[in-house]
What we know:
- Helices cover about 40% and strands about 20% of the residues.
- It has about 475 residues and is of the alpha/beta class.
- Helix 2 packs across helix 6 (about 175-190) and helix 9 (about 260-270) packs across helix 10.
Amino acid sequence: MRRYDSFYANGAFVRSEGAPAMPMVDPSTGCAIGEVVPSSPGNVNQAVQSARTGFQVWSRSTLEERSEALTRLHAELFKRTDEAVSLLAREMGCPVWLGQLMQVPMALKGLEFARDGIQQITWTEQIGNGRVELVPSGVVAAITPWNFPLHQIVAKVAPAIAAGCSIILKPSEVSPGAAHVFMEAVHFAGLPPGVVNMVWGGPDVGDRLVRHPDVQHVSFTGSTAVGRRIMAAAAEDLKPVTLELGGKSAAVLLEDADLGTALAAVVRLSMANSGQACVSQSRLIAPRGLLEQVEGRLGAALEPWPLGDPLDASTRLGPVASRSQQERVLAMIARAREQGARPVAGAGKVPEKLSHGYYVPPTVFSGVRPDMEIAREEVFGPVLSVMAYDSEDEAVALANATRYGLSGAVWSADPVRAAAFARRMKTGQVVINGAAQNLATPFGGWGWSGFGRENGRFGIEDLLQYRSLHGA
């Protein structure tokens, strides 16, 4: 049984004083495997005051010092790759292949791009008699989710370090191991005390951080509903917020798309991490004339995605992260059937040997209409909805028929045509013909997917303020 019972402040791990302890459950078995001891109000104040002191030092650091700190942190986190992969599998059900190929590498890349981003920013500019400077915004509170815990931590902590800010991290208690591994890397990387701090807890701890008078910026990744509450709380003190919220991403097949390549990629990007990703391509918009062929190919594309123990190297699809998440996804699948969606692949029963875990069979629905819940709301599970179109204008309308705008994809044999279509999609980023996501480009959404940007220099700039010195 693992016990996470220390927060981090003033460059040291300190025993948490909150109660009650929050249980940890292995989602592949449903069995308790440990607990997280929350931080008390006094612990939160201690972490914030640590960050306030740390900011006084780090805001005066040189760009070279910040770059070197990120390099050391990268080296320390890399040393802990195997431990992180194992904890991600056991605590949130992430298969080892995904931890090795995506979860940890994305975090390491995030550190690299933040380090590189320091050199890409114009920190000072002379305009007439005015010297314009970019300066750190202050103490940052970061609240991160459980689904890509290590990457999301890095997406907030790395730019704060690069910007010259200090930060207090509140990671999810569902997958705490990644945060603990990260803070050990911070500790041994030798950053000045108070630059990076961490507290444990649920919504009450998050709310305390957001409302704390010594916090100058709030960065949150999670659901749209919680994002609204955080934005409202921060507004009371006019604090800027960065919100990376939900998504309902569409993958659009144009008539000339290579179906074999495209559908294999769409299945991967809708099923990976059991569909628990804000950028999951959960809607497939296909030409009506190709619908029968698409449905047939999707069944074959799901065959290499067996459910299983996330620690088994042969497992492609693990459980969802919690019983409540499993119940929510299964309920949405049931309502989709009731509303007339037609299951064409998956949707079978979970094997008996996996029945004690929080597994959801990979499912593909066709005949999905824009008014159905499964087409409008984020499922956050291994579910793909297929929607048919008769014209390219209708395909655009279907792709944009959502209040979210985080990501999307388009497939065509003609890259110019694909790019033209992509520019009509109302979303923060679009993947064209299965290109690799570039973590040096700005990441963030429109509409209900939030605002502000992360990654590379763009995440750093999000934590900077302009100052003009006239006559300097």
